[in-house]
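Figure 2 data, in text form.
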Amino acid sequence: MFKDREDAARQLAARLKGRPLKDPLVLAIPRGGVVTGAVLARELGAELDVVLARKLRARYDPELAIGAIGEDGEEYLARFAYSVIGIDDDYLVEERAHQLAEIERRREYFRAVRPAAAIAGRSVIVTDDGVATGATMLAALHVIRARQPDELIVAVPVGPPDTLDTLARHCDHVESVLRPAWLGGISGFYGDFTQVEDEEAICLLRDHQLSRVAPR
């Protein structure tokens, strides 16, 4: 068990140190992932930004991801999506619209503090505080790959082996600390898994940006 997101991120960073990285950029999935990302960026001497992707939720079980959508509108839909009770074309149209509206809200919020970082030709590390189905991470990877990074790395503190193996097929490298055969829930691997609010994520992004431009 990790003490908190910062503890998890430090352990994760230790596994990435020594790996050759080209002009590294950490892209965090808000909001919990920004805490993980801020530590990774600091430990690896990387730039920090966010990638905006949202999971598509099951109608009667919002915690179940049936897919995800990225900020460019590209969608990933799980193979089992239509077998879930309440999922049909009409529901998916509604859910897509809802999540795209939330992406737009976050884009206005985060981009007021941090313009989108350049991705092409760089080592890009995509992170979150953990993955379960990996749907949101997959959406993020599709968005980023289209922008031609030099290499694309997924780095998460915890995720089940089958999900991490799936992600590995869509990036160049996957790094994790824990690979439990049974996940249950990401929060179960943290002593403190307090919800991260937008303002905290914004502050972390702003502080990291200022630290990179401050005179030394």
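Caption note: The chain has a mean pLDDT of 92.
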